[in-house]
Design brief:
The structure holds 2 protein chains of 2 kinds. Chain A contains 5 helices and 11 strands; from the N terminus they run E-H-E-E-H-E-H-E-E-E-E-H-E-E-E-H. Chain A is an alpha/beta fold. In chain A, the strands form 2 sheets. In chain A, strands 2-1-3-4-11-10-9-6-7 form a 9-stranded mixed beta sheet, with helices on both faces. A two-stranded antiparallel ribbon of chain A has the order 5-8. Chain A starts with a strand and ends with a helix. Chain B has one domain: Mth169, Chain: A, CATH 3.30.1280.10. Chain B is elongated and about 55 Å long. Classes of the chains: A alpha/beta, B alpha+beta. The interface between A and B is medium-sized, with 20 and 10 residues.
Chain lengths: ~230, ~90
Amino acid sequence: MPTRVGVVIFPGTNCEHDAVLALQRLGASADLVWHGDTSVAGYDALVLPGGFAHGDYLRPGAIARFSPVMDAVARFAAEGGPVVGICNGFQVLTEAGLLPGALQKNRGLRFLCTTVSVRVESSDSVLTAGVGAGTELAIPINHFEGNYTCDADTLARLQDEDRVVLRYVDNPNGSVDGIAGVCNEGRNVVGLMPHPERATDPLCGSVDGAVLVSALVGAATDFGSGRSAA
Amino acid sequence: MAGTAHFSVLVEVRLREGIADPQGATIERALPALGLSGVTGVRAGKSFRFDIAAADDADALAQATVVADRLLANPVIEESAVTVEPTGPGA
């Protein structure tokens, strides 16, 4: 059985096909999971891709948190299943309480659509396993609300526990401590604003995202084989 | 439902103190164009109005607070103020 990744879509999600293609290119089977579904059985990992879930009404991710699939996502995460939220998916995971903090409007109120340098800060997560700390990757960003914010206690905890997974080399959006991506305590839930799935083909200008998507596929394979051995 | 009354609710959501408010700062920077130099401390927020059928004032406030805390505001960065006013008994 190939490793199977579910890509969760909400009304207004728009990066799901990029995610599916990137996952397939890196050896996984991937298909779409509708937000109204109440089960994610059979998947070895989940990706919450970018877009504007439920129109980003109220706040990005605020309504998506109540979509039926989110209970299944939370259970899957609690069982140790790899879950990665990219851009809007990161916003959904913070609103759902699966990751700490919140994403505010960018400093300067600019919508940012460009390729930035992102530094891997920790190899200890489902998205960065096997990628050396200090590795710099060229990965696109595409967001208006990517300014990561949390209180001082949460920030200290993230730093102490090595949970800042990715940092911007040049902070583009005002994120506290230059944070581009964080993980949960179990290190199996990761959220990031940059789009690694858009940097997996030379046609897109960078293939630097492939190591991250590959790491996720590897984590999914491990989780799947661990589960079938249990 | 016997004894039901109707209430009008106003929920104001604003960023917590100390949380940067780029929208408020941008609005503030536009004010000199109006010839005003004494306006400071601009903070942007949102307001929501809705109606609630509830047993009494306390019940209406409790329900409105759930809406405010669990949906309208993100407690990580925002706080909310809830105002409840009776609009009359139920039909």
